[in-house]
Amino acid sequence: MSQITITTPDDWHLHFRDGELLNETVPATARCFRRAIVMPNLAPPVRNRTEAMAYKERIVAATPTGSPFEPLMVLYLTNQTTAEDIIEACGKDIPAAKLYPAGATTNSDAAVSAIESLYPIFEAMSEAGMLLLIHGEVTDPETDIFDREKLFIDQHLAPIHARFPKLKIVFEHITTADAADFVLDANDMLAATITPQHLLLNRNDLLVGGIRPHNYCLPVLKRNTHQQRLREVVASGSSKFFLGTDSAPHAKHTKETACGCAGCYSAWGALELYAQVFDDLDALDKFEGFASFNGPDFYGLARNTGHVTLKRESWTMPEEIALPNGDSIVPFFAGQTLNWQIT
Ligand code: DOR
Ligand code: ZN
Question: Distance, CA 107 to ligand 2 centroid (Å)?
Answer without folding.
Answer: 11
